[in-house]
Write a structure and sequence with these properties.
- A three-stranded antiparallel β-sheet has the order 1-3-2.
- The longest helix is centred in the middle third of the chain and has 10 residues.
- Strand 2 and strand 3 form a beta hairpin.
- The chain is α+β, with helices and mostly antiparallel strands.
- The two termini are 16 Å apart.
- It comes from Sporosarcina oncorhynchi.
- Pfam families: NETI.
- This is NETI motif-containing protein.
């Protein structure tokens, strides 16, 4: 039996809502303990343009 990590970052997938991501975390035995957002850029005509925001939740393993 493999031991789960105590903390894992879960990324909100494209087409997935925040609530769906939090539910997925709960199904895996984690609860949200932090959140961070990062812009995702794409190079268009030699310029970097933000295309979407990447949202990640820090999951803490429930005992």
């Amino acid at each position: 039996m493999s031991a789960k990590k105590k903390t894992v970052w879960f990324e909100v997938q494209e087409g997935e809502g925040i609530e769906e991501c939090l539910n997925r975390m709960a199904l895996e035995g984690y609860t949200a303990a932090g959140r961070k957002e990062e812009p995702l850029f794409e190079e268009i005509d030699g310029k970097y343009v933000p295309i979407r925001q990447v949202i990640k939740f820090k999951g803490i393993l429930l005992d």
